[in-house]
Sequence to fold (372 residues):
Amino acid sequence: MINTLFIFSGLLLDSFVVMMEKGATLRRQPVKNLLLYSLVYAAVTAVMFMIGCLLSFALSSFLPDGKTETLTAAALINIAGVSVVVKTLLSQKYEERLDRHFGLKSLVRLAALSGIHILIAGMSFSLFGLKVLPALLLACGLFFAAVFAGLEVGEELGAGYRRTISLSGGVLMILFSLIVFVRYGLG
Amino acid sequence: MENRRGHMKNELAESLRQLMLRSLFEKITIRQICERAGVIRATFYNYFDDKYDCLDWIVYHDMVEKNEDRINMNGMDSPVYDVLETIAENRAFYRAAYNVIGQNSFEDMIRGNLAKLLKLFFDRYRKPSYLPSYDNELLAAYYANGLAFCVRQFVFEKEGCTSVESTRRMISSLMKNSFYDYLQQ
Fold:
């Protein structure tokens, strides 16, 4: 459970920031719209997670033993964390500008792009030997909440501290992967 | 309803104007603008697309909206005087605003709004038979460039050095005389 939360925490922060930035560019949205956007985002997240799990089944057939699987999973989390950090550092200056054309289509595109990291996390899950179905249900609930919160915060307060939050998420994932490397690599 | 809308736009614009006296435009957030105006953040997008849009509206209000009814057959003297007076009253703001450069530069906003004002004049009073191949939009853009130069000079001059009236006279002379009028015959 701790491992699950650790892996998700970094990704949750990243998704929170993505939706906070989007919330900061929208006119006041009715609550039902925010709930719908959160539901759709969570659904896309679940799909990306499952794709990752399926890919890991294929990957695990090439790995000789459990230790290698664990280290590979940690490497994948490390890659996801580094990717979040690099994306944040290279991101262009953020301008608060009204997005007149935001809708479900653009939300799905946004969720799919952010979901690359979820896909990688999904791959690591089964390699870690964690139960996929409870993780999937937990992911849906947590991402739903994170996206809803991100949209609300963005709408009310804007997108300040987005770099700090996003970097924190990436660093958390990198730290977790390093702990696993040290524990299983040296063990 | 329209009055209330206009009033809220003024409030938000005035809020940005005041914030720019203390902070860099790049550092100002929509939340700060709304907090100062006493409204929630989401209200901003009911009136403006972004803070550049708000800044452009300030210039439009100062230069065009206030002078639409002052344009008359006798020329641009009265609106130009009013524009310069408004700038003189808000000189600190205009000096700060000229730091907004790049794609949505303040200079472009000044030029664009002066062109709008001049086009209003040409649309109402221009002789249609005189140089008809040059449309009002082109003429307005051409003269707006010169006027924008004069405005910039006026903004950055030391206060008290050049009066509104003397600048108005200079602009009037420049607009009334052609390039060739300055050359010896």
User: Anything to note?
Assistant: Chain A is about 80% helix and 0% strand. The interface with chain B takes residues 24, 26-28, 95-98, 100, 155-158, 160 of chain A (CB under 8 Å). The mean pLDDT of chain A is 88. The radius of gyration of chain A is 17 Å.
